[in-house]
Amino acid sequence: MTPAVVESDWHFPYSSILPSSPAATPELHLLACQTFLPESLRNSITSQRSGRMVSGAIALAFLPLLLTLIIRYRHYFVLFYRAVLVRIVKDCLTGLSREERAFQYVLTHATPGDADSILDTFDQWCSKVEFISNIGPKKGKVLDRILTENCPLNVLELGAHCGYSTVRMARLLAIGARIYSVEMDEHNAVVAEKIVRLAGFDDDTVELIVRPSDEVIPRLREDFGVERLDFVFMDHWKRCYLPDLQLLEGSGLLGEGTVILADNVIFPGAPNFLRHVKKSGLYEYRVHRATLEYIRGIRDGMAELTYLGVK
Ligand SMILES: C[S@@+](CC[C@H](N)C(=O)[O-])C[C@H]1O[C@@H](n2cnc3c(N)ncnc32)[C@H](O)[C@@H]1O
User: Fold this and answer.
1) What is the pLDDT of the chain when averaged over all its residues?
2) pLDDT tens digits, residue range 47-90?
3) Which of 156, 162, 233 minimizes the C-alpha distance to 193?
4) Mind listing the domains of the chain with CATH numbers?
5) Alpha-carbon distance 176 to 181, whole Å?
6) Which of 43, 47, 74, 191 lies most in the core, judged by the most C-beta atoms within 10 Å?
7) Is 9 among the residues known to form the active site?
8) In a 10 Å sphere around its CB, with 0-12 CB exposed, 13-18 middle and 19+ buried, how is residue 76 labelled?
9) Residue 141 catalytic?
10) Which residues cross the membrane (predicted)?
């Protein structure tokens, strides 16, 4: 017999006999049950009631745990909401990609030819409207400082996305210096190209290469005439950090003093990459602690490596 039948059954006999409402007098309700219902049904009701009480108690016991988890991981929920849910909804509503929406905002709010205005506008959009994993203003300042200190001539960027970090670096380069910026996603590369040109940088300063990094690195010398890299900024998929670093080591393009800056080594993290850096003895390194771009409360860091040269 299903619970619904049981409940409708046990109102009938005594509600016609007793004038008061069963809901208002639970004792009478119970008494009536005991009086009118067969024993098997009474047992079934009692076991269902105690079953419900046990599940209620279990749910109550888990409530503090659930609350603790929600509070502890709230920043990750915010990240998921902003980076995934908002994106899906807006993709459906606008018919544009998130990168195209960002570009439209920058185009209509920033001053063309002014790299800082373009970066500031991007930062506004990413902090208030939608999330894009640009390096952002805080870690961006670390990048600015390390790049300025090293004054590189040949820069390799792995992962341009919308061109935010490309513009960030290009604005600080000395005359004659060049960035080879690698982006494998064609749609992202179209946006990156538009952002870089909007900021006023031409082909001589920024060469955008639309191919995967593991195809580009071995051909940098042949296809682009690069003899030595002075600065490498790694900000592509984290699983590519280690294989690409090893490709760079084997390419002969790293020289003594070449600086490699790798973003997000704590979140999402690149443990194999860090392990290799520590064990290989090829680098002096340090990790700059920071928080994830545009989201408070998620710890992240950038690894700065200085290549010591072949021993
Ligand atoms: C985190 S975003 C880069 C953000 C950018 N550096 C900035 O701060 O503005 C990562 C980008 O790397 C690209 N990417 C990932 N793996 C790649 C690879 N193996 N080769 C080239 N591009 C890659 C992705 O398509 C994505 O656009």
Assistant:
1) 87
2) 777 778 888 888 888 888 888 888 888 888 888 888 889 999 99
3) 162
4) 3-71 (no CATH), 135-307 (3.40.50.150)
5) 16
6) 191
7) no
8) middle
9) no
10) 53-73
Which CA distances in Å does 161 have to 9, 62, 176? 66, 42, 24
Q: Is the shortest distance between the CB of 164 and ligand 1 below 6 Å?
A: yes
Residue 185 Cα: closest atom of ligand 1: 25
Pairing of strands 299-307, 254-262: antiparallel
- Its sign, for the CA torsion 228, 246, 136, 110, is positive
Its pTM surpasses 0.85: no
Which residue stretches of the chain have pLDDT < 50? 1-24, 28, 31-32
* 182 close to ligand 1 (CB < 6 Angstrom): yes
Tokens found for residue 7:
């409940």
Residue 235 designated active-site: yes
Query: In the numeric block, which tokens belong to residue 153?
Result: 């001539």
How many angstroms does the Cα of residue 296 sit away from the middle of ligand 1? 22
Using alpha carbons, select from 55, 54, 30 the residue that is nearest to residue 42.
30
Instruction: Please state whether beta strands 229-234 and 283-291 pair in parallel, antiparallel, or not at all (unpaired).
Output: unpaired
pLDDT digits (tens, 9 = 90+) for 233-279: 999 999 999 999 999 999 999 999 999 999 999 999 999 999 999 99
Centre of ligand 1 from the C-alpha of residue 36, in Å: 73
